[in-house]
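Recall the central idea of this unit: under ordinary conditions, the amino acid sequence of a chain determines the structure it adopts. In this exercise we apply that idea directly, starting from the sequence alone.
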Amino acid sequence: LQANARHDDDSEFGGKSTGALAYGYAISPNWRATASTGTAFRVPTLYQRFSIYGSPSLMAETSNNQEVGLRWLSGPSRASLVAYHNELSNLINYVGGAGNCGQSGCYVNTGHARMTGVTLAGATQWGRVNLGGSVDWMDPRNLDTDKWLARRARQQASLTADFLLEGWRLGGEMQYVGERYDNASNSIRLAPYNLIHLNASRQLDRDWRLLARVNNLTDKDYVLANGYATPGRTFYIGL
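Accordingly, the structure predicted from this sequence is:
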């Protein structure tokens, strides 16, 4: 059982008390159920208010958040199923599209928003290979307009694997991000994309480790925000 309490006293946005209550119950040695509820308070940053993309009149964001989950653990294998429901007032959100704040986009308050979803995750060891993955389904909605919230994917998934070979730990990740919209009116669509990353590391001695990584192995052309470029195939090496 966990209980949290917090009070913020902001010179510009006033005082706000928030808290959370969470409970976990071991149904059996392998199964555990969890539930939590809480509130949150977030004031806009100076960048969100006073940069060229800012809005000085931004209001503080508040939210009520609930979550229930079921978790399973047996040896090296584990799995979890978590459902969440978040109600937000004055969500601080970047919205693209000509005409907003006289720029190509800016930070605005979304009066009433709701994000509900389910996350399924798991991991196991298959021989010498560690496998992991997760899938998230989310409904990110502007309740005032019944449109999708900008730049939030309704489906995301990832799959990871790594193993030891001749002193090297070799691994890879496949990432999927579903369709999103770049603006509040949902007229500018951002296409879904898949990415593949590879990584390798080797412990040279107690104090030194060699690292290498390739991001976006297939040199995929994808968009996170309309009008902004993203890196192609990228190599890193480090010691």
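The mean pLDDT is 94.
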